[in-house]
Amino acid sequence: METVVSGIRSTGNLHLGNYYGAIQNFVKMQKEYNCYFFIADLHSLTTHPTPADLHGNVKQVLIEYLAAGIDPEKATIYIQSDVPEVAELYLYLNMNAYLGELERSTSFKDKIRSQPDNVNAGLLTYPVLMAADIIIHKAVKVPVGKDQEQHLEMARTFANRFNRLYNRECFPEPYAFNFSSSLVKIPGLDGKGKMGKSEGEGNAVYLSDSPDVIRKKVMKAVTDGGPQTENQEKPEEIQNLFDIMKVVSTPDTLEHFDNLYNSMNIRYGDFKKQLAEDIVLATAPIRERIKDISTDASYLRQVARHGAIKARESASRTIKEVREIIGFRSF
Ligand code: TYM
Q1: Which residue in 193, 168, 147, 94 sits closest to 321, CA to CA?
Q2: What is the spatial distance between Cα 65 and Cα 257, in angstroms, rounded to a whole number?
Q3: What is d(CA 9, CA 61) in angstroms, rounded to the nearest whole number?
Q4: Ligand 1 in contact with 88 (CB < 6 A)?
Q5: Distance, CA 7 to ligand 1 centroid (Å)?
Q6: Single pTM value for the model
Q7: The sheet that has 141-143: what strands, in order across it?
Q8: Which atom of ligand 1 is nearest to the CA of 40?
Q9: What is the percent of the chain where pLDDT is above 90?
Q10: Would the pLDDT of 80 be above 90?
Q11: 205 near 217, Cβ under 8 Å?
């Protein structure tokens, strides 16, 4: 059975982008593949969270994984820092990752721009840690959103380079995966770019947002003065709202508003009201389960412990092999 790995940084609550870009695929894949889904708390250290925030965020992501339908009986759910073998593999891969290629990564360039006062080595080698996460379980499929495509390309580079250096077929090549034909990018509500945790207030709709908060955010979403001609191309901020509608609403609803736009009869107030209600409906079951699971500390503890044991079994197998290949042999 093919192995699947994916993770989400523990930097706060999960949003619609995380759900439709990644988690929805996790839930489907757990039925068919050998899946490892983790919470990337080591990755979150690049932004220096306080210990209390770090722990709270890890717990929240664990709750939301479970609430969204990841089943610990089917998939291995674990916290990255519970598997120290990942950090060890990261160290080995770092010896074989080059400054030039790391500096060229788009995410690194973005981070230099967004946090110029904290350009730490962890940011630079972020794609190496991500490669370690994936190849530690010898995964071949990685369910992620479109923004992670370049990281997957780098993971393949590091895996292949290790194989070539030691002339061994240790790691298979991992590829980004989505059940639909292409990787997904969910736009934000602010009219530009993707939905993201660090994109500013009001950009993201969180799975834990109450219906009222969802309605307020959507009603405030950026729109323009309306179409000027029939069948015109939609400007980015309008296309973005249609893109969100595509994932939360029925095809009929989408077509209805598309026709209204094309005939210049659309009223953005009605359009946004419908979009907000469809988001509320789509997220309702998750919101309910978040409430239930949040209070069940013993269940969360059990899931995390069980996941750590299973993930370490797989990771330590790989590390044993890697140590042997590198030449760390016992006397
Ligand atoms: P992160 O935490 O930024 O996002 C987690 C997942 O959600 C997807 N995603 C989106 N998809 C579509 N539209 C959006 N607006 C959107 N925003 C986020 C991301 O593509 C991702 O799949 N480096 C990773 C975490 C990570 C990882 C890994 C993933 C660490 N190690 C190993 C896979 C395998 C990250 O920062 O994702």
Answers
A1: 168
A2: 32
A3: 9
A4: no
A5: 7
A6: 0.96
A7: 76-79, 34-40, 3-9, 141-143, 175-177
A8: 30
A9: 95
A10: yes
A11: yes
Distance 18 CA to ligand 1 centre (A): 7
Among 210, 204, 195, 197, CA closest to 287:
210
DSSP letter for 71, please: -
Whose CA is closest to atom 36 on ligand 1? Answer: 9
DSSP-derived letter for residue 202 is T
Question: Residue 186: CB within 6 Å of ligand 1?
Answer: yes
Query: Ligand 1, closest atom to CA 126?
Result: 23
pLDDT of residue 198: 76
Q: What are the pLDDT digits (tens) for 272-322?
A: 999 999 999 999 999 999 999 999 999 999 999 999 999 999 999 999 999
- In the reported structure, the alpha carbon of residue 40 is separated from the centroid of ligand 1 by a whole-number distance in angstroms of 10
Q: Give dist(CA 188, CA 204) in Å, integer.
A: 6
If you measure from the C-alpha of residue 145 to the centroid of ligand 1, how many angstroms do you get, rounded to a whole number? 6
For the record, the structure tokens of 146 come out as 């479109």
* Three-class secondary structure of residue 104 per DSSP: coil
Among residues 253, 189, 196, 248, which one has the least CA distance to residue 216? Answer: 189
Atom 17 in ligand 1: residue holding the nearest Cα:
17
Q: How far does residue 143's CA lie from ligand 1's centre (Å)? A: 9
Residue with CA closest to ligand 1 atom 25: 8
Domains of the chain: 3-184+297-326 (3.40.50.620), 209-291 (1.10.240.10)
Q: At which residue do the structure tokens 């405030």 appear? A: 220
Cα 107 from Cα 117, distance rounded (Å): 16
With a 6 Å cutoff on the Cβ, whether 7 touches ligand 1 is: yes
Asked if residue 262 lies in contact with residue 230, where contact means CB atoms within 8 angstroms, the answer is yes
Rounded to whole angstroms, the Cα distance separating 229 from 325 reads 65
| Any ligand 1 atom below 6 A from CB of 18 | yes
Q: Are 287 and 207 in contact (CB under 8 A)?
A: yes
174 lines ligand 1 (CB under 6 A): no
- The full DSSP string for 243-264 is HHHHHHS-HHHHHHHHHHHHTT
What are the catalytic residues? 111, 194, 197
What pLDDT does 173 receive?
Answer: 98
